[in-house]
Task: structure prediction
Amino acid sequence: MLNELMEKRKKVLAESEQHKNRRNELNAQASKSASERNALNAQTRGFVDEAQKNKELRDKYNSEVQALKEQRNDLNKKANEIFDEIEAYKKDHGTIRNRGVKELQKQIEFLEFRQQTEVFSTDKERELIEKIKQMKEQAREQEAELEQHQEIRTKLGQGRDFRKDASEIHAKVTEMADLAQKHHDAMVECYKKADKSREAADEVHRKFVEAQEAADAEHKFFIACQKELRDYDKVISGLRKKTKKTKVSKEQKAVRKEAERIFNLFRGGEKLTTDDILLLQRSRLI
Result:
C-alpha cells in the first residue's frame, strides 16, 4: 500500500510542476501584454494631446479669419459707398459716359472668389485668370477716365485705397484659412491615429485578461495539487511510523524470546557469555 501511495504522490508532484510552469509562463505573457498595452495607451494619449493642440490652433486661426473678414467686409462696404456716390455723380452729369466701376469690381471679386474656392481644370483656370485680368484692365481704364473729372478724383482715390486695403486683408484671410485647414487636417489625422492605437490597446488588453485568467486557473490547480501532496505526506508518514513501530515490536519479541531461552539455559547450569548476560540485562530478566 505504501508503494502505491508513493507512486500516486509522484504523479501528483509531476502534475503540480506542470501547473506551476504553465502558471509562470502565462504570468509572463500577461506581464508582456500589460507593458505593450500601457505603451499603446500612452501613445494614444500622445495622439489625443497633439490633436487637441491642433484643434486649438485651428480655432484660433478661424477666429482670426472671422475678425479679418469683418474688417475686409467693412472696407469693401466703404468702397462700395464711395463708388455709389461716383455713380450718382455720373447720373447727375450726363456728359460722363462710363460703365459702372463698382459693378466691374463686384464681378472681379466674384470671379476671384470662385478661383479661390472652386476646382477648375488647367485650361478653365487659365481662361478665368485671363478674364479677371481683362476686367481689371477695363476697371483701370474707366477709373483713368473718371480721374479726368476733378469732382470725383478724390473719391476715386479713397475708393481705391479701401479696395487695396480690403485686398490685402483678403490675402491674410486666405493665409489664415489655409492654416486653419492645415491644423484641422492634422487634428483629424491625429484622432484617426488615436483610434487605431486605442483599438490595438484594447486587443492587447483582451490578451492580457485571457492570460491572467488562465494563469489564475493554473495557480488554483497548483494549490490543489500542493494540498493533495500534503495529504499524501501525512498518510505516508503515518504508515511509515506504523511500519517502524511494528518492526520494532517484532524485534523486541524476538529479543525477549532469545533472552528467555538463554535464561532457561542459565537456570539449567549452563555457562553464559558476556553477550548473553548483556541480553538478559537488556530484557530485564536479571
Remarks:
- The radius of gyration is 53 Å.
- The chain has five helices and no strands.
- The first helix runs from residue 2 to 92.
- Helices lie at 2-92, 101-117, 122-146, 150-267, 274-282.
